[in-house]
Amino acid sequence: MKGVVVITPEDIYEGEDEVIAAITNSGSRVHIRKPKSSLLSLGNYCERILNSAIKEYITVNREQEIVDRFGLGGIHVPYSDIENTIEKLVEKSIEGVVEKSVEHNFEHCLESLISKTDIKQDFLVSCSTHSYQEAHRADCLGASYYFLSPIYDSISKHGYLCGFDDGSLREFTAAHGRCVALGGVDITKLDKLTHFYSVALLGAVWQIDDGVLNIKKSIESFKNINDRWQELKSYTI
What we know:
Layout: E1 5-7, H1 16-25, E2 29-32, H2 39-49, E3 58-61, H3 64-70, E4 74-78, H4 82-93, H5 106-115, H6 119-122, E5 124-129, H7 132-141, E6 145-148, H8 166-175, E7 179-182, E8 198-201, E9 208-209, E10 212-213, H9 215-236
Parallel strand pairs: 1-2, 1-8, 2-3, 3-4, 4-5, 5-6, 6-7, 7-8
Antiparallel strand pairs: 9-10
């Protein structure tokens, strides 16, 4: 994955389209998470941002209807839905071509089917996990990548506190190559997280004061973080 992952604020702010355009034009991915918005409102929001953003670098939380309508590049689901989501996408992509084998267990069959499709290259399926057990399961099921959180105390969610230690994280990511760090990540912590596939940010990017989005500062925050992340990752290759 090129660059960092940026999650949108829950509320809708004027100027988000400019920030999202800057993010996707750099090759980084945006996760649209608007739990307070209706399907109609979310659709109108996507229409606005897609005037300037690159749709292949946009993932939407949960709403497959929105993903299909706009031809977006990914869907993000809760951990509890990842197995069913991947299974449906695999079935859809190979419908009429490959039949499932009833002689193999689900995970073996799913892994085999995914290897015969281009889902992970053309369309990304991700999920949120909050334990090593969940992250391992998401990895085994073939998620394109998966958030593990909270790695640090959250910036945007009060009381959402770190639940992992550095040693066990390094051991886990060494064996699980698609794990994305989420929770409390800012530019000062990036050098400690290069063993992750990528990092996901919210509060460290979006600069909002008294309900007003500062577009210039938000873009600057993203660019500083993304440039630093790519610089650090280049040392680990």
